[in-house]
């Protein structure tokens, strides 16, 4: 199995199904966890030296930080509901607690932080939708904590890719700290699939092919992208959801397309 692929883990003694740390991923910035809570269960995430954004993927919950409380948040039964999520952001030194009012799933996004921005509830109306691509390259993006809202390091978005389509395509990368041409950002992909018995394919590769991994990714798996291009293909009959977490030396998403496939963009502009 590829070292870039983290399989979903289920345990009767833990709510956690994924746990990606800078140490386990052998990188510097991004941390990610996924948790499934049953009704009545609670989860507290300590920020420590990180800033954190905990996304309520589905269900209803009460949420709080050290100085704030929000009751009965949530408006999705599934990540495939075509609705933006609720999320809670907290700076370094704070904490976030969720109490499940029904069965819920949480995505915990972490990156180095300071105290430049206060804890806050991110509501669906604070998120930003956009559709990218044409034809079989169409995918639907929801920016949760991206250009729509400020943070120290974190970039968080959701993407739904329809059946038979490609996403993060044409292939692009962001592994060089060379603004304004490109920025260096580590990235995790948390994958969900509908129906859940399906799979998607994700390739991670560099120009010199010193890294070249193609993975069959199942529901609940995480793909880590330390460098290189990272397209996703969705088989016929299934639709794909993934939540991206990115962070690096600067909070700026500037990517570079694979020159071998960039011609597709120009062709699509002419035929649009």
UniProtKB/TrEMBL annotation:
Record keywords, A-Z: Isomerase
Biological processes, Gene Ontology terms: inositol catabolic process
Class in the EC hierarchy, top level: isomerase
GO terms assigned for molecular function: 5-deoxy-D-glucuronate isomerase activity; glucuronate isomerase activity
Keyword hit for Isomerase: yes
EC code: 5.3.1.30
Pfam families: KduI
Superkingdom in the source lineage: Bacteria
Protein name: 5-deoxy-glucuronate isomerase
Organism: Marinomonas transparens
């Amino acid at each position: 199995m590829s070292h870039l692929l983290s399989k979903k883990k289920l345990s009767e003694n833990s709510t956690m199904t994924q746990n990606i740390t800078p140490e386990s991923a052998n990188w510097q910035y991004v941390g990610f966890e996924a948790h499934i809570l049953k009704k009545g269960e609670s989860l507290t995430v300590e920020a420590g030296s990180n800033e954190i954004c905990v996304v309520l993927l589905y269900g209803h919950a009460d949420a709080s930080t050290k100085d704030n409380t929000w009751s009965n948040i949530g408006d999705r039964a599934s990540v495939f509901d075509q609705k933006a999520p609720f999320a809670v952001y907290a700076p370094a030194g704070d904490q976030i607690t969720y109490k499940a009012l029904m069965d819920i799933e949480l995505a915990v996004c972490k990156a180095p932080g300071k105290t430049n921005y206060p804890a806050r509830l991110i509501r669906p109306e604070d998120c930003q939708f956009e559709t990218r691509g044409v034809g079989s390259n169409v995918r639907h993006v929801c920016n949760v904590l991206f250009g729509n809202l400020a943070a120290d390091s974190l970039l968080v978005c959701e993407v739904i890719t329809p059946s038979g389509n490609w996403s993060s395509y044409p292939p692009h990368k962001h592994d060089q700290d060379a603004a304004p041409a490109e920025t260096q950002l580590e990235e995790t992909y948390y994958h969900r699939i509908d129906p859940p018995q399906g799979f998607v394919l994700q390739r991670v590769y560099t120009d010199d092919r010193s890294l070249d991994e193609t993975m069959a990714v199942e529901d609940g798996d995480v793909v880590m992208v330390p460098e290189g291009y990272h397209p996703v293909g969705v088989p016929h009959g299934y639709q794909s959801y993934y939540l991206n977490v990115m962070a690096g030396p600067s909070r700026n998403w500037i990517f570079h397309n694979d020159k071998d496939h960039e011609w597709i963009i120009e062709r699509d502009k002419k035929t649009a």
